[in-house]
Amino acid sequence: MEPLALLDGLEIKLRQLSAAADRQRADYERVIAENQQLKRELDRQTGIVSSLKDKLERSHLVTDEANEGSGPSVSATDDQRATIEFCIREIDRCLDWLQRN
Asked: Rounded to two decimals, what is the model's pTM?
């Protein structure tokens, strides 16, 4: 093979490699940006979960204090507690999904 043809072939391969490297770099930057966005969302969701857990604990304290004076009728508070715990489980499930992705 002629040296000129070899050089042309090498030049084409180098350009292809350069284009592939550019695509990889762009993909990397996109993934980094998406990762940062997901971390911000995870932090936000973690704050929400902490806030909800604090509210749940406060509501437990309030309902426990109210129940001490009111007697055995606590079905409404049990329903609220079940609803809040369900919401917390759903939020935890969403946070787990965000961490995996």
From this structure: 0.52
- Output the CA–CA distances (angstroms, integers) from residue 95 to 53, 87, 101, in the order listed: 14, 12, 10
Nearest one of 66, 88, 89 to 76, comparing CA atoms: 66
The tens digit of pLDDT for each residue in 7-54 reads 999 999 999 999 999 999 999 999 999 999 999 999 999 998 888 888
| Counts for the chain of helices (H) and strands (E), in that order | 2, 0
Alpha-carbon distance of 2 to 16, in angstroms, equals 21
66 contact partners, CB below 8 Å, separation of at least 6: 77
